[in-house]
Every structure is written in C-alpha cells, then in structure tokens.
Amino acid sequence: MKRARGVLCLVLLLFWLTGCSAKHHPPEADTSWIETLAVVVAQDSGQPLSLTLVESEVTRHLYQRFRLITRSQLETIADEQRLAGGRLFDPPTLIELGQLAGADAVLQVTVTGHEIEWTTTQRYRAHVSLAMQLFEVATGTVCWSCLSRRTKTSETISVAVHDSVSGAVWDCVKRLTGWESMVEGDGAMRVCSRTGLQLAPASDADGRRVTVQGVAAGSVWAEAGLRAGDVIEAVNGRQVSRSAIEFPRGAEQRCVSLSIRRGDRRMELTVPIAPEEALSSSGSGHR
Fold first, then answer.
1. Would you call 107 exposed, middle or buried from its count of C-beta atoms within 10 A (0-12, 13-18, 19+)?
2. Fewer CB within 10 Å: C terminus or N terminus of the chain?
3. What's the pLDDT tens digit per position in 31-71?
4. What does residue 78 show for φ and ψ, rounded to 5 degrees?
5. What is Dmax (Cα atoms) for the chain?
C-alpha cells in the first residue's frame, strides 16, 4: 500500500511539473504563413490598466514582421458591419472581423491580472499577468497560446507598471516570433547563446550604439571578424537603436552587413549566415 501511494505521488508530481513547464514555457509558434496580423487587447481582471500601453508594447515588436491591424481598425469594421461592440472579444467575432479585415491571423492579448502594492522599502511594486492566443482566421482555431507574469519595482508607479508590462509582453512575443535576444532600453543585456553573440547598450548619450560583449569561437560572427569590444553602429545600412536590435528566425536574407567601430577605426563586415541566424535592426523588414 505504501509503495502504491509512493508511485501515485511520483506520477502526480511528474504531471504537475509537466503542466508547469507547458504553462510557463509554451512552444514557439510557426508564423511563417502570417503576413497580416490583427491585434486585439482586452482586460478581464485586476486593477485597471492602460490597454494603450499594452497594445503599444505589442505592436512595437511586431510591426517589423507583420502588417498589423489594430483594435481601433477592427472596431471601425465592427461598427460598419453593425457587430455588437461588447462581442468584439468573442472568438467567433474576432474570426469574422479578421476575415473582413483581410488578416491571416488574430492575436488576442488579455490582461488577466494587474496589482500595485507599496513595499516596506517605500517603492511601488507592479504585478502584470498576460494571456496571448493566436487564432488562425481560415480555420477559426487557436494555433498557439502563451501565459506570462512579470513583477517590477520602482520609485514611481508609472515606471513599475511600464516595466512589468514590457517584460510580460516580451516573454510571449519572443516565443511567438522566435526572436532569441534583445538589448532593451533599460540597459539589460540579453544573451543570444544560439548565435554565439552577446550584446549590451553602449554608453553613447543618444543611445544609438550597441557594444559586442562576447563572440563565441567558431561562430559565423567570429569568422567574419567581429570581436568583443566592437561597437555596432548600423545593420544592413540602418542605424541601430539600442532599444531594438533583434535576432529573428526564418529571415530570408542570407547575409548581414555590419557597420562597426573598433577604437578609432570604422569597418564594414559582411556575415554570411543561415536564415535562422539572421540579425535585424529596428525598422527593417524581414519577411
């Protein structure tokens, strides 16, 4: 009997761990078939949160990859078609609106939790939980989903809320798009271990430089001549913004042109790469 109970407890523990892993680490989505994406943001619980902030965080990542249709555009279509505004976030209505708008998919972003507390260290702590679902318009089915929760602390409410929203959105977006790494405006360094490159914001006053902190031996970046300490000023001729230098998968380009500064010298490097290792800067397309 004790042995049977032990086996049952072990099975339940494994089931619980598997469920947690699936919940917090959702599989990456295959978005290669999506050209036009409709984005809808809503809130179903928690303290009131600016949906405009959430939508702006989502769209600032996705506008480079997809042709986006925003909530306001969908609401206009709903008014024209005399669809009930309160039903805008029902899946059948979303699918219908997606079809009318010519979208391949609809991304529904729902704020599932938002709390602000005052800590004993006299700082504000913001908790934000998000759920994302990707609907395929042609079939009306959910083809991907993600849950995320972020907590950030700051001396001001606005910064705590913004950073928690930004982090929660990025947790899901990076899995939706397959992007491995991003150097963000908060100065945090994201390590792209798959491509063998480590980046961090440079100390320029205008914030439009990125410093290479590490290059893995044998990687395409090392073979092209990139070194730790190099400062990337432009990617494919576009000036780099330290708030958006990303590593998307599935890009069609076969090489990346880097404008770098090494000490007092400026150099141009061409990196031959496979599509999944493509490097893209803010504002560049990669479909």
1. buried
2. N
3. 889 999 999 999 888 889 999 999 999 998 887 678 999 98
4. -65, -40
5. 76
Give the number of C-alpha atoms closer than 13 A to the C-alpha of residue 53, restricted to the C-beta side. Answer: 18
Spatial distance between the Cα atoms of 51 and 172, rounded to a whole number of angstroms: 17
Q: So where are the chain's domains?
A: 36-177, 191-281
For domain 191-281, the CATH superfamily is PDZ domain (2.30.42.10)
- What is the 8-class DSSP label of residue 46? S
Please state, in angstroms and rounded to a whole number, the distance separating the CA atoms of residues 150 and 140: 30
* Buried b or exposed e, range 205-238, using 16+ CB within 10 angstroms: eeebbbbbebbeeebbbbebebeeebbbbbbbee
Q: What is the DSSP string of 231-286?
A: EEEEETTEEP-TT-EE--SS---SEEEEEEEETTEEEEEEEE--GGG--EETT---
User: Using one digit for the tens of pLDDT, what is the confidence trace for 176-211?
Assistant: 876 544 444 333 333 343 456 677 666 555 455 678
CA atoms of 246 and 174, how far apart (whole Å): 10
Q: How many CB atoms lie within 10 A of CB 249?
A: 18
Angle at the Cα of 19 from the Cα atoms of 57 and 188, rounded to 5 degrees? 35
Place of tokens 């063998």: 196
Predicted TM-score (pTM) of the model is 0.59
Q: Does domain 36-177 have CATH number 3.40.50.10610?
A: yes
Paired with 133 in beta bridges are 108, 145
* Number of neighbours of residue 202 by Cβ within 10 angstroms: 19
